[in-house]
């Protein structure tokens, strides 16, 4: 496509997602039911997640993997909706970054 820029994620961006400030390990612990965040912890997690494309993509991957497990249809529906919303947010933020 003529005149269109593509934002490429740095290759090194995914290697330390389990180290703060990234939240991959916390997301996995939540998914496995090993961690129930306190409100303050959840606020820190969410504020990082809003800003970090790498963690957003990791969350999307975790949701997609969970969709392949044996869940009730209601849970599958909820996860599909969550993944769609996350995908929309990622695309929206990337468009905003591209435009500005």
Structure, described:
- 63% of the residues lie in helices and 0% in strands.
- It has 100 residues and is mainly α.
- It has one domain.
- Helix 1 (24-32) packs parallel to helix 3 and helix 3 (53-66) runs antiparallel to helix 4.
- The protein is globular and about 40 Å long.
| Number of extended strands | 0
Rg (CA only): 15 Å
Distance between the termini: 20 Å
Domains, number? 1
Helix run count: 4
What is the compact description of this entry?
Helix content is 63%, strand content 0%. It is mostly helical.
Which short descriptors sum up this protein?
globular; single chain; mainly alpha; 100 residues
Strand and helix layout:
Elements: H1 24-32, H2 39-51, H3 53-66, H4 73-99
Helix pairs in contact: 1-3, 3-4
